[in-house]
Amino acid sequence: MAGLRIDSEQEPLLGDTPGNREWDILETEEHYKSRWRSIRILYLTMFLSSVVLKALYFFLQIDQTADASFLGWVIASYSLGQMVASPIFGFWSNYRPRKEPLIVSIFISVAANCLYAYVHIPASHNKYYMLIARGLVGFGAGNAAVIRSYTAGATSLQERTNSMANISTCQALGFILGPVFQTCFAFIGEKGVTWDVIKLQINMYTTPALLGAFLGILNVILIFAILREHRVDDSGRQCKNINFDEASTDEVQVPQENIDQVAVVAINVLFFVILFIFALFETIITPLTMDMYAWTQEQAVLYDGIILAALGIEAVVILLGVKLLSRKIGERAILLGGLIVVWVGFFILLPWGNQFPKIQWEDLHNNSIPNTTFGEIIIGLWKSPMEDHNERPTGCPIEQAWCLYTPVIHLAQFLTSVVLIGIGYPVCNLMSYTLYSKILGPKPQGVYMGWLTASGSGARILGPVFISQVYAHWGPRWAFCLVCGIVVLTIILLGVVYKRLIAFSVRYGRIQE
């Protein structure tokens, strides 16, 4: 076949010249276009799932029997579902066409959205339907492992960082646009319209779910029409695709050398810590701002929502910059720099000085119960935004003893920390699974990517539990000191395995680093 090197976005590898490479087995222009059409469909899949997740996140209708403990399980059920599903879909994608687990996972999400649209039918205890629906949405989101493994297997080393960055960018854009849709749906109102024939209520609660079901079906149609199986080695040459029996004489065989398992475990630990830290940061931001700045719950939800949306925009900009920077200094150095930036961000959050937060003294004088416990905050977030709440006292509740001796975290201090964490987190997140895909090499990566995704899901479960307990009992000083300690240990781990975090082909001398 006519071998063509069609890669306008990338510079050739060191030593990559017609004189020292097998150019006769490089891809044709037709194969190149098909490969990138397939990868871009996966970008769209990640974007759509992120939009639906964020649009549906807060608008959940729960009956009054759901206490804070149960709502915590509802929140965790998404990550639990994803943690269970990721290795399953990853294993499936290793031995069957990857289109299969993708389509099945999307149909599971569509079914979950349809179930959610009908949770209003039971007169009571619809909380169990909500728990199942959210868990199934998480189970469907296990296709992230398939998306990343497909992208890793369909790109060369030169293309890998750009492609992984595009996946993260699409995810970040989805997280930005999701709340925008959510705000628009609020204007539909709680009552909305009812379609009596099929007992469907179309209101601000069910519209995000119905949109999610529609986008899921559209996504399946596009996957059927466009996605094709492609696999290339680290140099960009076509490899035999083990998902099929047929082979081509123009395809190179997948190398059989062993993967560096120490590096694999280290990246899983690093990825767990990175997501653990960001999950606890997302969890603590609302109670922290309510305690430190005497914001009402409504103010905290509004302002913190704006902050998180700004972090999404910041992440997109950072990811675009990282794509260029990684060519000059490499992924390992950027990962190390990202962890240092995250550590600085949490270090700045440590309380200093002699000014203390406002205390909820009025609660004691009026014999009322302080309102800023974690459980009540969770319940408040899941209530209808249209519901008329009684005015509640603000400030740091006296029942949290640390409020009396812990200095306030100034707003400028908090915002500076937010900016730094917003820089470090997307960098670390992207570099960790980009390095991971390169360490694994051209072998099918479904199972390994499944375990990586599962470790991240576990982190999103444990992070909120950890920070809620430490913050409530010991306050922000202890909480952020422990986080700083965890980040320091992570940096030490990265230093220990730094030289092992190299691409599979570089390790075995096929490509120069």
Automatic annotation (TrEMBL):
Keywords in alphabetical order: Membrane, Transmembrane, Transmembrane helix, Transport
InterPro entries per the UniProt record, alphabetical: MFS, MFS_dom, MFS_Domain-Containing_Protein, MFS_trans_sf
Every Major facilitator superfamily (MFS) profile domain range: 1-502
Principal location: membrane
GO MF entry, a single one: transmembrane transporter activity
Highest taxon above the source species: Eukaryota
Topology versus the membrane: Multi-pass membrane protein
Locations listed in the record: Endomembrane system
A single GO cellular-component term on record: endomembrane system
Entry annotated with the keyword Transmembrane helix: yes
Protein's UniProt name: Major facilitator superfamily domain containing 8
UniProt source species: Saimiri boliviensis boliviensis (Bolivian squirrel monkey)
